[in-house]
Amino acid sequence: MHDHHSETYRLDAVRALEWLKTAESENFDRICRLAAAYFNVPTVLISLVEKDRQWFKARIGFDRDQTPIDQSFCAYTIRENGVLQVEDASRDRRFRFNPLVTARNGIRFYAGAPLRTRSGHAIGSLCIIDKEPKQLNDAERLVLQDLAEMVMAQIEQRQLSDCHDPVSGLPNQRQFFADLNDLGLQPQAEHRVLVLIDALDSHRGHEMTLAVGTGATQSIILEIAQHLKQSLSGISCAYHVNDRQFCFMLQTSMPDYELFVHRLIDRLRAMTRSDSALTSPSPRAGMVIFQHDPLSHADLLRKAMHAVESAHQANTHWALYDIARDCAWRRAFTLARDVDRALASDQMYLVFQPRFSLLDGRRVSAEALLRWNHPELGAVSPAEFIPVMERNGLIQRVTHWVIDQVMSTMAQWQDLDCRVSLNLSPKDFDDQDIGEILRLACQRFDIAPHRLEIEITEGEWIRANPQVIRQLKGLRELGMDVAIDDFGSGYSNFAYLHEIPANVIKLDRSIVTDLPGSPRNQIIARSILQLARDLGYRTVAEGIEDYQCLALVTQYGCHEAQGYFLSRPALPGALAQLHDHLPPRQLVAS
Ligand code: C2E
Ligand code: MG
Ligand code: MG
Hints:
21% strand, binds ligand C2E, alpha/beta, Alpha-Beta Plaits, EAL domain-containing protein, EAL_sf, Beta-Lactamase, binds magnesium ion, 6-stranded antiparallel β-sheet, single chain, TIM Barrel
């Protein structure tokens, strides 16, 4: 008889076969038909016995797909070693009051063979049923048992292929998660480390496959699988969790586990290195330390993949999961995901920061700056989200929206004849003619092109694509100003400047803002402003935060200025109310 514990394990075994609930199997039906013909009975069932019901995976001559456990004959069968035979149920005290027996045309004969897993748990039965009393001889009992074995073999085969990778034969991701869950059965929750091995990174893998075919990549994967199996034997179990990735767990109490991983990955790299760098797969590892917690299991593999990605980006052989990087990564993902909704709602809007002439204090224009009020993340700076959009191929959509907003705002400023400058990203010059887009927008909103200025940052990207210069020329021909933004930061270069059709130079904030306190920046600012001026550019200093700073750039002969000291960015409606002239106090006599 089974005690409470073994019943728990038996039920676990039934639950482990969860797929049976959905997977249809032709072979089960065949076995049922075979049994019906051989024993000449109207009803054959393959049943699984759960806690309070039994359900039928395959059935012939029975119209329900489950019955409550208290009506189940099979619940008795699973306690037997061999076949349970009930020659006449109406005379058997266990069954004679069973509704299935007392019903009209009810069950009289029953014989069932238990379905037993390799670990010895009976999960259900194969049974034959008749409305007439009947008796099986020894040979017939053996046949029934054989058929039950066939059902079980079918189930096990299915489980095996469900939980193992067909190529490497290693347990797969499904098995990994099942085993991860089993960790919870262990009495002490120890710290463990999950190590994910990326056999060949996805870009490299793809390139390799294109060059040498799937055969070569497959054999590398197999080689690595084999080596992992050997290296981990007696220590841990390797899982083949997806195409190119393997994982295993170690206890952090294992001395020098990091060194172990380090050496393992070095061996894998040495082993798979080929003569050509192009076809060397360079495996990497990502590690994440964890404690058993069923709620975070699904996330564990993701974190380990994240660590692999960190290793990839840092070009190291392995990396440990870093929560800060993970958060930044997910935040960027959220931003990229939400941009369309933001553009379609009032989450995104433009503010305008005035720019003033240092000669006469007039407001000459305003720079359109994008703002995003994200529903969960709050205010997000363009310095953060613009690069995300650039990386994810979303910037053109954003720019089109900005252009439309700028134009419609200008069209609404009836008495305000303010010029506007807008920022473009290098990606705005790819696969489209931004000049043409701006020209059409000006036409649509009836805005004179000379009221517009575009700001770009100087860099290699301008020379890398001949279309850029052509498009910039087009903009200049339309009458728009082209400004080099953030000049003096990064690698701004006067030598190449004449190749760019720009007529305005904006000195970078990082040089301007702390000008009063930095003699070095004073020299740089003065030189750049003078040189730019001599070369015929109009010059702008941005990031003016105080009077001294304003005085210095005025003294250096800068033409125009922008900064918090002069005016903060304002909503389009508020711009008209702002001063259109610098107050005399702020105007420095030059
Ligand atoms: P940027 O084009 O150099 O814009 C100037 C930045 O300096 C703005 O930051 C502005 O608010 C800030 N600023 C202005 N005066 C001061 C000051 O006195 N002190 C300080 N500390 N900062 C000042 P914001 O609005 O955060 O924009 C950051 C960057 O994001 C912009 O730098 C620009 O590169 C980009 N960006 C903003 N809007 C757009 C857009 O519509 N399209 C594109 N492609 N990029 C944009
Ligand atoms: Mg700008
Ligand atoms: Mg700037």
